[in-house]
From TrEMBL:
It is an enzyme of class 5 (isomerase). The lineage of its organism: Bacteria, Pseudomonadati, Pseudomonadota, Gammaproteobacteria, Chromatiales. One of its GO terms (cellular component) is cytosol. The keyword rRNA processing applies. Belongs to the pseudouridine synthase RsuA family. This is Pseudouridine synthase. One of its GO terms (biological process) is enzyme-directed rRNA pseudouridine synthesis. Residues 4-62 form the RNA-binding S4 domain.
Length: 271
Protein backbone atom coordinates (compact mmCIF):
# COMPACT_ATOMS: atom_id res chain seq x y z
CA UNK A 1 0.00 0.00 0.00
CA UNK A 2 1.32 3.43 -0.98
CA UNK A 3 1.71 5.84 1.93
CA UNK A 4 2.66 9.48 2.30
CA UNK A 5 3.81 11.69 5.14
CA UNK A 6 0.85 12.86 7.19
CA UNK A 7 1.78 16.56 7.04
CA UNK A 8 2.01 16.35 3.24
CA UNK A 9 -1.48 14.82 3.00
CA UNK A 10 -2.93 17.49 5.30
CA UNK A 11 -1.25 20.31 3.39
CA UNK A 12 -2.42 18.95 0.04
CA UNK A 13 -5.96 18.68 1.38
CA UNK A 14 -5.87 22.43 2.06
CA UNK A 15 -5.88 22.25 5.86
CA UNK A 16 -2.76 24.43 6.12
CA UNK A 17 0.86 24.69 5.07
CA UNK A 18 3.14 21.71 5.62
CA UNK A 19 5.10 23.54 8.30
CA UNK A 20 1.89 24.50 10.09
CA UNK A 21 0.70 20.88 9.93
CA UNK A 22 3.96 19.67 11.47
CA UNK A 23 3.36 22.02 14.38
CA UNK A 24 -0.23 20.82 14.80
CA UNK A 25 0.90 17.20 14.81
CA UNK A 26 3.52 17.97 17.46
CA UNK A 27 0.83 19.71 19.53
CA UNK A 28 -1.35 16.59 19.43
CA UNK A 29 -4.14 18.16 17.39
CA UNK A 30 -4.16 15.45 14.70
CA UNK A 31 -5.29 11.84 15.02
CA UNK A 32 -5.08 8.89 12.63
CA UNK A 33 -7.39 5.89 13.00
CA UNK A 34 -8.34 7.01 16.51
CA UNK A 35 -4.84 7.50 17.92
CA UNK A 36 -2.88 10.72 18.38
CA UNK A 37 -0.57 11.19 15.42
CA UNK A 38 3.19 11.61 15.74
CA UNK A 39 5.69 13.44 13.56
CA UNK A 40 6.96 11.00 10.97
CA UNK A 41 3.65 9.13 10.61
CA UNK A 42 2.73 7.99 7.12
CA UNK A 43 -0.84 7.35 5.97
CA UNK A 44 -2.59 5.61 3.12
CA UNK A 45 -5.76 6.51 1.25
CA UNK A 46 -7.96 4.58 3.73
CA UNK A 47 -6.66 6.39 6.83
CA UNK A 48 -9.23 8.07 9.08
CA UNK A 49 -7.73 11.49 9.80
CA UNK A 50 -9.14 14.05 12.24
CA UNK A 51 -7.96 17.55 13.19
CA UNK A 52 -9.06 18.92 16.57
CA UNK A 53 -11.47 15.99 16.77
CA UNK A 54 -13.18 16.80 13.47
CA UNK A 55 -12.93 14.08 10.79
CA UNK A 56 -11.68 15.22 7.42
CA UNK A 57 -13.84 12.71 5.58
CA UNK A 58 -13.08 9.64 3.54
CA UNK A 59 -11.57 11.62 0.68
CA UNK A 60 -9.29 13.78 2.83
CA UNK A 61 -6.16 12.11 1.46
CA UNK A 62 -7.19 12.79 -2.11
CA UNK A 63 -5.90 16.05 -3.58
CA UNK A 64 -8.35 18.91 -3.99
CA UNK A 65 -8.37 20.80 -7.28
CA UNK A 66 -5.51 23.27 -7.08
CA UNK A 67 -7.02 26.75 -6.96
CA UNK A 68 -5.54 30.21 -6.40
CA UNK A 69 -7.36 33.42 -5.51
CA UNK A 70 -6.15 36.99 -5.79
CA UNK A 71 -7.77 39.07 -3.03
CA UNK A 72 -7.65 42.84 -2.62
CA UNK A 73 -7.13 43.21 1.12
CA UNK A 74 -8.39 46.44 2.68
CA UNK A 75 -6.43 48.11 5.46
CA UNK A 76 -7.91 47.10 8.81
CA UNK A 77 -8.36 43.40 8.05
CA UNK A 78 -6.07 40.86 9.71
CA UNK A 79 -4.54 37.76 8.12
CA UNK A 80 -5.81 35.24 10.64
CA UNK A 81 -8.84 32.98 10.91
CA UNK A 82 -9.96 34.31 14.28
CA UNK A 83 -8.97 37.57 15.91
CA UNK A 84 -9.22 37.95 19.72
CA UNK A 85 -9.83 41.68 19.26
CA UNK A 86 -12.83 41.02 17.03
CA UNK A 87 -11.36 42.64 13.93
CA UNK A 88 -12.49 41.49 10.50
CA UNK A 89 -10.30 38.79 8.99
CA UNK A 90 -9.36 38.29 5.35
CA UNK A 91 -11.10 34.89 5.31
CA UNK A 92 -14.62 36.22 5.84
CA UNK A 93 -15.13 37.25 2.20
CA UNK A 94 -13.58 34.19 0.54
CA UNK A 95 -15.77 31.52 -1.11
CA UNK A 96 -16.46 28.47 1.03
CA UNK A 97 -14.79 25.16 0.26
CA UNK A 98 -16.02 21.64 0.83
CA UNK A 99 -13.40 19.31 2.26
CA UNK A 100 -10.60 21.87 2.50
CA UNK A 101 -9.76 25.46 3.27
CA UNK A 102 -7.95 28.46 1.85
CA UNK A 103 -4.32 28.93 2.82
CA UNK A 104 -2.85 32.45 2.73
CA UNK A 105 0.34 32.84 0.72
CA UNK A 106 2.32 35.21 2.90
CA UNK A 107 0.91 37.92 5.12
CA UNK A 108 0.14 41.62 5.14
CA UNK A 109 -0.02 43.57 8.38
CA UNK A 110 -3.28 45.11 9.49
CA UNK A 111 -2.45 48.57 8.08
CA UNK A 112 -1.27 47.30 4.68
CA UNK A 113 -3.67 46.82 1.78
CA UNK A 114 -3.37 45.23 -1.64
CA UNK A 115 -2.73 41.85 -3.20
CA UNK A 116 -2.99 38.75 -1.03
CA UNK A 117 -2.95 35.30 -2.65
CA UNK A 118 -4.77 32.23 -1.34
CA UNK A 119 -4.62 28.62 -2.49
CA UNK A 120 -6.19 25.26 -1.69
CA UNK A 121 -2.77 23.59 -1.99
CA UNK A 122 -0.69 23.88 1.18
CA UNK A 123 2.44 22.63 -0.60
CA UNK A 124 2.14 25.37 -3.22
CA UNK A 125 1.64 28.00 -0.49
CA UNK A 126 4.69 26.79 1.41
CA UNK A 127 6.94 26.92 -1.64
CA UNK A 128 5.72 30.31 -2.81
CA UNK A 129 6.62 31.72 0.62
CA UNK A 130 9.95 29.88 0.96
CA UNK A 131 12.94 32.26 0.90
CA UNK A 132 14.92 29.95 -1.41
CA UNK A 133 12.68 30.87 -4.37
CA UNK A 134 13.09 34.63 -3.79
CA UNK A 135 9.83 35.61 -5.47
CA UNK A 136 9.51 39.39 -5.95
CA UNK A 137 7.01 41.37 -3.91
CA UNK A 138 6.20 44.82 -5.27
CA UNK A 139 4.60 47.57 -3.19
CA UNK A 140 3.25 51.03 -3.88
CA UNK A 141 4.23 53.20 -0.93
CA UNK A 142 3.49 56.80 0.02
CA UNK A 143 6.28 58.32 2.06
CA UNK A 144 5.93 61.32 4.34
CA UNK A 145 9.18 63.28 4.72
CA UNK A 146 11.99 64.54 2.53
CA UNK A 147 13.56 61.79 0.40
CA UNK A 148 17.00 62.55 -1.05
CA UNK A 149 18.93 60.73 -3.76
CA UNK A 150 21.52 59.72 -1.16
CA UNK A 151 18.74 58.12 0.89
CA UNK A 152 17.47 56.16 -2.12
CA UNK A 153 20.99 54.96 -2.89
CA UNK A 154 21.41 53.67 0.67
CA UNK A 155 18.11 51.81 0.41
CA UNK A 156 19.27 50.16 -2.83
CA UNK A 157 22.68 49.23 -1.46
CA UNK A 158 21.31 47.92 1.83
CA UNK A 159 20.93 49.07 5.41
CA UNK A 160 21.31 47.15 8.66
CA UNK A 161 18.05 46.47 10.52
CA UNK A 162 17.59 44.74 13.87
CA UNK A 163 17.21 41.38 12.08
CA UNK A 164 20.02 41.81 9.56
CA UNK A 165 20.85 43.68 6.38
CA UNK A 166 18.11 44.40 3.84
CA UNK A 167 17.63 46.44 0.69
CA UNK A 168 15.17 47.31 -2.04
CA UNK A 169 15.97 45.56 -5.28
CA UNK A 170 14.21 48.31 -7.17
CA UNK A 171 12.86 51.79 -6.37
CA UNK A 172 10.74 53.67 -8.89
CA UNK A 173 9.24 57.12 -8.37
CA UNK A 174 5.54 56.96 -9.24
CA UNK A 175 4.13 60.42 -8.57
CA UNK A 176 4.92 63.41 -6.47
CA UNK A 177 2.32 64.17 -3.82
CA UNK A 178 1.51 67.28 -1.89
CA UNK A 179 4.19 68.82 0.29
CA UNK A 180 6.39 66.03 1.63
CA UNK A 181 4.24 63.12 0.36
CA UNK A 182 5.57 61.13 -2.58
CA UNK A 183 4.67 57.75 -4.07
CA UNK A 184 7.22 55.04 -4.90
CA UNK A 185 7.08 51.48 -6.21
CA UNK A 186 9.59 49.24 -4.45
CA UNK A 187 10.56 45.58 -4.72
CA UNK A 188 11.78 43.11 -2.11
CA UNK A 189 12.33 39.36 -2.39
CA UNK A 190 11.75 38.24 1.18
CA UNK A 191 8.84 38.24 3.58
CA UNK A 192 10.37 39.59 6.78
CA UNK A 193 7.89 41.25 9.11
CA UNK A 194 7.12 44.89 8.16
CA UNK A 195 10.24 44.96 5.99
CA UNK A 196 9.16 47.73 3.62
CA UNK A 197 8.09 50.03 6.46
CA UNK A 198 11.25 49.38 8.46
CA UNK A 199 13.51 50.10 5.51
CA UNK A 200 11.95 53.52 4.95
CA UNK A 201 11.83 54.26 8.67
CA UNK A 202 15.57 53.55 8.89
CA UNK A 203 16.03 56.74 6.84
CA UNK A 204 13.95 58.91 9.15
CA UNK A 205 10.80 59.08 7.03
CA UNK A 206 7.34 57.62 7.63
CA UNK A 207 5.23 55.33 5.47
CA UNK A 208 1.76 56.90 5.37
CA UNK A 209 0.25 54.32 3.01
CA UNK A 210 1.39 50.89 1.82
CA UNK A 211 -0.18 48.62 -0.80
CA UNK A 212 1.16 45.38 -2.29
CA UNK A 213 0.63 45.44 -6.05
CA UNK A 214 2.40 42.26 -7.18
CA UNK A 215 3.51 38.86 -5.82
CA UNK A 216 5.72 36.83 -8.15
CA UNK A 217 4.15 37.03 -11.63
CA UNK A 218 0.68 37.89 -10.28
CA UNK A 219 -0.28 41.57 -10.34
CA UNK A 220 -3.21 43.14 -8.51
CA UNK A 221 -5.96 43.40 -11.17
CA UNK A 222 -6.69 47.09 -11.79
CA UNK A 223 -10.48 46.57 -11.63
CA UNK A 224 -10.38 44.53 -8.41
CA UNK A 225 -11.82 46.66 -5.62
CA UNK A 226 -11.03 46.31 -1.94
CA UNK A 227 -12.76 43.28 -0.46
CA UNK A 228 -13.14 41.56 -3.85
CA UNK A 229 -11.42 38.40 -5.05
CA UNK A 230 -10.57 36.97 -8.47
CA UNK A 231 -9.75 33.34 -9.25
CA UNK A 232 -6.69 32.72 -11.39
CA UNK A 233 -7.12 30.59 -14.49
CA UNK A 234 -5.39 27.20 -14.89
CA UNK A 235 -2.59 28.67 -16.99
CA UNK A 236 -1.69 31.25 -14.33
CA UNK A 237 -1.81 28.58 -11.61
CA UNK A 238 0.48 26.35 -13.65
CA UNK A 239 2.92 29.25 -14.04
CA UNK A 240 3.11 29.60 -10.26
CA UNK A 241 3.70 25.85 -9.89
CA UNK A 242 6.48 25.88 -12.47
CA UNK A 243 8.24 28.72 -10.63
CA UNK A 244 8.49 26.59 -7.47
CA UNK A 245 9.19 23.20 -9.07
CA UNK A 246 5.73 21.67 -8.63
CA UNK A 247 4.07 19.67 -11.45
CA UNK A 248 1.43 21.57 -13.39
CA UNK A 249 -2.10 20.15 -13.34
CA UNK A 250 -3.95 21.83 -16.21
CA UNK A 251 -3.72 20.45 -19.73
CA UNK A 252 -3.54 22.69 -22.77
CA UNK A 253 -7.21 21.90 -23.42
CA UNK A 254 -8.14 22.99 -19.91
CA UNK A 255 -6.39 26.31 -20.45
CA UNK A 256 -8.31 26.98 -23.66
CA UNK A 257 -11.63 26.22 -21.99
CA UNK A 258 -10.96 28.20 -18.83
CA UNK A 259 -12.62 31.60 -18.75
CA UNK A 260 -11.54 34.30 -16.30
CA UNK A 261 -13.98 34.81 -13.46
CA UNK A 262 -15.37 38.23 -12.77
CA UNK A 263 -14.39 39.83 -9.47
CA UNK A 264 -16.93 39.12 -6.77
CA UNK A 265 -18.87 42.20 -5.76
CA UNK A 266 -18.32 43.48 -2.27
CA UNK A 267 -21.43 42.85 -0.17
CA UNK A 268 -23.24 45.97 1.07
CA UNK A 269 -22.58 46.96 4.66
CA UNK A 270 -25.41 46.56 7.10
CA UNK A 271 -26.53 49.17 9.51
Amino acid sequence: MTTEKLQKVLARAGVGSRREMERWIAEGRVSVDGRTAQLGDRVGAAARIAVDGRPLGKRAAEPLPRRVLAYHKPAGEVVTRQDPEGRRTVFTRLPRLRGGRWVAIGRLDVNTSGLLLFTTDGSLASRLMHPSYRLPRDYAVRVFGHVSEAMLERLREGVTLDDGKAAFERIETLAAGEAANEWYRVRVREGRNRLVRRLWESQGVTVSRLMRVQYGPVALPPNLREGQHHELGPGAVDELCTLVDLPAEASAGDRRKAAPRRPRRRPPRRG
